[in-house]
């Protein structure tokens, strides 16, 4: 009797590659005593003549303050990513990540000169809202999408006003808005 062979599948290349790159950024942080996180994987106000400033507009989503911060974001990306890549295509998910990273990086750079931003939570919230668009077809918007948007955006606005912590609710809101806009834009398109 033959035993079935088990094969591994790199089923969600964008989500898996993102998780690996963010893990490598976290390892590099430990090896360099935080230099890589400060100089490559955090976005903050600096001179635009610094070539690393341009990388940080995107690279900040790979940086994390520690292993628990990394796990909290990456588990959700690994849960949501495969379905999004299957529904919208890997290239569209990659562009959604890059666009969300750029917008949140630029907003941080312009409006918050005295602080730095790092982490993939904006990407996570973009994916949460984008995944809610799975049921949008033929101009019909599911109530679950509306509830996710209201609860999510309402909760983040509440926290932004009444909580004072080291969590960037604005980044979550930007991610949610990006996910909503991209969800409407991608819902009618076929998978690439």
Description:
Helices cover 66% and strands 0% of the residues. It has 8 helices and no strands. α1 runs antiparallel to α4 (67-88) and α6 packs parallel to α8 (169-187). It is globular.
Q: What is the succession of H and E elements?
A: HHHHHHHH
Query: Structural class, judged by helices and strands?
Result: mainly alpha
Task: Assess the beta-strand content as a share of residues.
Answer: under 5%
Q: Given the structure, what is the number of helices?
A: 8
What is the topology?
Layout: H1 13-31, H2 35-39, H3 51-59, H4 67-88, H5 90-111, H6 121-131, H7 143-162, H8 169-187
Helix pairs in contact: 1-4, 3-5, 4-5, 4-6, 5-8, 6-8, 7-8
Question: Descriptors for this entry?
Answer:
192 residues; mainly alpha; globular
Short description:
With 192 residues, this protein is mostly helical. It is built from 8 helices and no strands.
